[in-house]
Specification:
Strands 1, 2, 3, 4, 5, 6, 7, 8, 9, 10, 11 and 12 form a twelve-stranded mixed β-sheet that branches. It contains one helix and twelve strands; from the N terminus they run αββββββββββββ. It has one domain (3-161): Sandwich (Immunoglobulin-like). It has one helix at residues 3-21; strands at residues 27-32, 39-44, 48-55, 64-72, 78-84, 88-99, 102-107, 111-113, 118-121, 126-133, 142-149, 154-161. The radius of gyration is 15 Å and the shape is globular. β6 (88-99) and β7 form a beta hairpin. By secondary structure, it is mainly β.
Length: 164
């Protein structure tokens, strides 16, 4: 079974999970592979979408980052209040900021996601930190991350592991 097949199966499972979390909601997914590793864009009837999620490779016990874009297509705004992952001992929202000549990371507590808005989690900006990975992440793997919102909604996302 290829990593594209596995990722497609994961996307299908993610859609089932998203539906299970939100009642009888439906969703759709798109898959692309411009660098050999599949990336999945998932949109659910909850009005939340994850676009091009990916994670950096790292050894077990080490930290890594997850990047993606979160979109809100609902008429009401929401706030991202937390993130979690079974792939790590802890997950957290961080941002990279310049302090003088030094780049530092600091925790983020709550991120507004307005109606029709988008949050870009990217290198050298806001990102998801996975702390103390339970298993190594190598290119071609995936790691699941769940985003929790103030409204009570959650969005489970599978990020493909690739080098930047």
């Amino acid at each position: 079974m290829t990593s594209r097949t596995i990722c497609a199966a994961c996307a299908s499972g993610l859609l089932l999970l998203s539906g299970a979390c939100g009642g009888s909601e439906q969703g759709s997914s798109q898959e692309s592979a411009d660098d050999g590793a599949a990336t999945v864009s998932v949109t659910t009837a909850t009005g939340l979408a994850a676009v091009e999620p990916w994670a950096r490779p790292a050894d077990a016990g080490k930290n890594t980052a997850v990047y993606l874009q979160l979109e809100n297509t609902l008429p009401d705004g929401d706030s991202l209040i937390g993130v979690r992952s079974e792939g790590a001992e802890r997950a957290a929202l961080h941002e990279s900021v310049m302090e003088g000549a030094t780049m530092r990371m600091r925790p983020m507590i709550g991120v507004a996601l307005p109606s029709g808005g988008r949050i870009a989690f990217r290198p050298m900006g806001p990102h998801v930190m996975l702390l103390r990975l339970r298993d190594p992440l190598v290119p071609g793997d995936t790691v699941e991350v769940t985003f929790d919102f103030a409204s009570g909604r959650s969005l489970a996302v599978r990020a493909g592991v690739r080098t930047p």
